[in-house]
Design a protein that fits this description.
35% strand; 6-stranded antiparallel β-sheet; 4-stranded antiparallel β-sheet; Jelly Rolls
Length: 213
């Protein structure tokens, strides 16, 4: 049975010691050499350069963002497995974090824990461009929760922002839960030729004595 998550990533963590990681994996890039990726949907509009991906970092993600005046970044959310941090390079704006509004200005550094207290959204309510860095751990599986829309996202095989294929990914409403046993017996289709698990049987004692499963 294949384990959840990314087996290649897990094996790499087990076999590469810390000395090898620092000696053999040092890579360098420059933001000026990377192309911007534009992301836009409704009130969200931003530009991003994925610095961590450019150097093939495995355990730490880093992106450079530019948020135009009057626009908002990713929807209000928090991660359950990954801690994030934000550093403002230039400009000003507002930060909705843990249910409150905060001013953002050049030089501000903010951390977002991997729980409900880390919920956040960046808003540029200034007249100029807001430029900032976001750094995060790259742990998977991860569940991202969106309190406003009461949905959550699941990422297995590669964390949010990761470049590897995911074995499971999707967004779901929080109130869409089902019973633990829903459709389980039907899915098996009567494996073994009987659905009488737990039923009394005149041969049950004899079968148990014979060591059958």
């Amino acid at each position: 049975m294949q384990p959840f998550g990314n087996p290649r990533r897990n094996r790499r963590r087990e076999t590469v010691n810390s000395a090898d990681r620092h000696t053999n994996r040092m890579q360098k890039t420059n933001a000026d050499n990377l192309a911007w990726t534009t992301l836009e949907d409704g009130r969200m509009a931003l530009r991003r350069k994925q610095l961590g991906e450019a150097v093939e970092a495995e355990e730490l993600g880093c992106s450079l963002y530019e948020l135009p005046a009057g626009r908002r970044a990713w929807p209000y959310h928090y991660h359950t497995a990954n801690e994030e941090a934000l550093f403002v390079l230039t400009g000003s704006g507002s930060l909705r974090a843990d249910g409150e509004m905060h001013d953002l200005r050049q030089g501000d550094y903010v951390t977002f824990p991997a729980d409900a207290s880390g919920a956040h959204r960046v808003i540029n309510d200034s007249g100029g461009t807001l430029r900032y860095l976001v750094v995060s751990t790259m742990t998977e599986p991860d569940v991202t929760v969106y309190p406003d829309s009461e949905k959550f996202g699941v990422y297995v095989g590669s964390p949010p922002g990761g470049r590897e294929a995911r074995s499971l990914e999707g967004y779901y409403k929080q109130d869409g839960s089902v019973d633990y046993w829903a459709d389980e017996d039907d899915a098996e289709g009567g494996v073994g030729g009987t659905d009488r698990i737990g039923d009394e049987d005149e041969n049950s004692e004899e079968a148990g004595a014979g060591g059958q499963d």
